Amino acid sequence: MIKTVFTTPFNDQKPGTSGLRKKVKIFEQPNYLENFVQSLLDSLEGGAAGKTFILGGDGRYYNRQAIATVLKMAAANGVAKVIVGQGGILSTPAASNLIRKRKVDGGIVLSASHNPGGPNYDFGIKFNVGNGGPAPEKLTNAVYARSREIAEYKTLDADVPSLAILGTFDLAGMTVEIVDPVSDYAQLMEELFDFSAIRDLLGSGFRMRFDAMSAVTGPYALEIFEKRLGAPAGTVLNSKPLEDFGGHHPDPNIVHAKKLYEELMGSGAPDFGAASDGDGDRNLILGRGIFVNPSDSLAILAANAHLAPAYKNGIAGIARSMPTSRAADRVAEKRGIGMYETPTGWKFFGNLLDAGKVTICGEESAGTGSDHVREKDGLWAILLWLNILAVRKESVADIVNAHWAEFGRNYYARYDYEEVEQARADALMTELRAKLSTLKGQAIEGEMVSDADDFAYHDPIDGSVSENQGIRVLFESGSRIVFRLSGTGTSGATLRVYLERYEPAGGNHRQETQAALVKLVHAAEEIAGIARHTGRDAPSVIT
Ligand code: VG1
Ligand code: CO
């Protein structure tokens, strides 16, 4: 029942920051998903035959059809075994954990992460390698090259049995094992953190809220917070995963998790609020009356990680993506541990984690994680915060203020200009690149530019080089502006402008963020001509 289907290439299957992400409508074109999956299977070192993979997704619209397609194609290509999350569900960090725990060859995760879901919105597919982390560029480039020349794919002329019941079945000679998506992950969290201390905290009148945003973390959060940690029923909001995330944008920031944010800022607010994204790898951290900027959160978690059992002997080093604020650098410097700056996207952390150079990694986009898996991990970050709160017995605001007092504060914001016409966004970046060499030594908005470059990363472990990873403009004052185009959007281009200003220990840490950055906003306009190029006089989203 194996059949070979003739096909012709699509020219747009280049994986971005995190896999191939497109509108559902694009994925629904005949052969579109099949072409990509076959290109992937063809590009694996040693081929796909005989290998074992993990498979699951965030449950969004098209997840079920895609799981069936992948299973049939895996079987037809001679894959030995696929371990699937029950109902086709696995969060990204849970998939990473299973790849490592079961020592398999890799995993396929179906998700468009923080992008909205539903028939008119987004879908995605990404591949993780044997260490549990996102495929490195060498592999994603090979998949893209293959997708440009593909002429046929293999699949089965058969239906895939239901994935609703735990157990094992045979699919044309391939073993399919259906596992509980939550239990291995929940067990890992219990090994890393002091659950009894967190249970005591939650039993002592400390109130928390977690917003699953109708996405994949609902079942994980119910099991961990309400069942294992004894938080009262109702602690987890929007806990039922929905194919369209209830029409919301499952991106845990103060714009899209507005209701939670308002609750934490209001009177009678709980002590702690948190949220995660579509596939469970991002986190939002709120305290009563305070939003913790993700870059600050990375620094605070790194500075306090030793309070949790898994990190009690300290951390080896920290890595952050280039646009992430340099708050974590202050911690690394003071503690005398390694600090690494990588391009945007979790795939660049894998080598550093595997080599034991770093223990904790993070991105400004609300991704934080450690060497426990090879993905960013939303619930992990939230549990580490809870562990720290349980030990320090201080409020979130007090911990943040004490951190700034010791290390200084990196005022920080990201301005996103979404759905800009691609040609206009490209023109902006081209013009910017061309004037880089002239920026140095210029005074802009009264601040002297000390350096400007296009970030290139030289991986210290495997020597690979990744160029054109974003424009950095550094000022003598220590301020910085970064410009780059998003690699996860599905319509037009998204220009991201990252603004950062450092206020040392002893300085004024009580300013409102936007007010503190106002000069940099003007400088960014002067340097890049954002309004002139994009026709926008304000960003679509500020985070
Ligand atoms: C964005 C973020 C980046 C993150 C990526 C995937 O990429 O900026 O930090 O790693 O999304 O996150 P870009 O190229 O759009 O800036 V997720 O939760 O969507 O897997
Ligand atoms: Co995500």
UniProtKB/TrEMBL annotation:
Gene3D superfamilies: Alpha-D-Glucose-1,6-Bisphosphate, subunit A, domain 3, Alpha-D-phosphohexomutase, C-terminal domain
Gene Ontology CC, one term: cytosol
Domain Alpha-D-phosphohexomutase alpha/beta/alpha: 13-153, 184-286, 295-407
Enzyme Commission number(s): 5.4.2.2
Record-linked InterPro entries: A-D-PHexomutase_a/b/a-I, A-D-PHexomutase_a/b/a-I/II/III, A-D-PHexomutase_a/b/a-II, A-D-PHexomutase_a/b/a-III, A-D-PHexomutase_C_sf, A-D-PHexomutase_CS, Alpha-D-phosphohexomutase_SF, PGM
Catalyzed reaction equations: alpha-D-glucose 1-phosphate = alpha-D-glucose 6-phosphate
Annotated PROSITE patterns: PGM_PMM (PS00710)
Keywords from the UniProt entry: Carbohydrate metabolism, Glucose metabolism, Isomerase, Magnesium, Metal-binding, Phosphoprotein
Molecular function in Gene Ontology: magnesium ion binding; phosphoglucomutase activity
GO biological process: glucose metabolic process
Family per similarity comment: Belongs to the phosphohexose mutase family.
Listed name of the protein: phosphoglucomutase (alpha-D-glucose-1,6-bisphosphate-dependent)
